[in-house]
Amino acid sequence: MVSFDEILQEVGPFGRCQKRVFLLLCPVSLPMAWIYVGIVFQGFTPEHWCRQPVAQEQRLACGWSLEESVSRTVPKSSRPALVCSAS
User: Fold this and answer.
1) What separation in angstroms does the CA of 6 have from each of 13, 16, 19, 47?
2) Where do the TM regions start and end (predicted)?
3) Is the dihedral of CA 41, 43, 48, 53 positive or negative?
4) 78/25 Cα distance (integer angstroms)
5) Which end of the chain is more exposed for a tag (fewer CB within 10 A), N or C?
6) Rounded Cα gap, residues 77 and 67, in angstroms
7) What is the rounded distance in angstroms from the CA atom of residue 82 to the CA atom of residue 49?
8) pLDDT at position 59, please?
9) Could you tell me which of 36, 78, 86 has the C-alpha nearest to residue 57?
């Protein structure tokens, strides 16, 4: 069976024709580069939570910091909901 290296030796080095084809196809592929790079930004989902006016009111009434408010209002499947007693 013929190996890939043997085929490359038969074809020869990167010649003038291959360079010309490469240079002719580069301008065609440049607009598509933004699509390939865009998936990096579109595919990333940052850690986030939605701000709710009711949670804001509860935070002010209970005197919670922003971190405490997030930890107490963002649902966790294994943690029961916490409530405060407003004075």
Assistant:
1) 12, 21, 22, 51
2) 21-44
3) positive
4) 55
5) N
6) 18
7) 17
8) 87
9) 86
pLDDT at 20 over 90: yes
Considering Cα of 23, then 25, then 31, then 35, what sign does the dihedral take? Answer: negative
Amino acid at 55: A
- Max intra-chain CA distance, the chain: 87
Sign of CA dihedral 34, 32, 20, 12: positive
> Which two tokens mark 9?
């030796």
For residue 21, which amino acid is it? V
Tokens representing residue 34 in the block: 């933004």
Identify which of 66, 49, 54, 71 has the alpha carbon closest to the alpha carbon of residue 81: 71
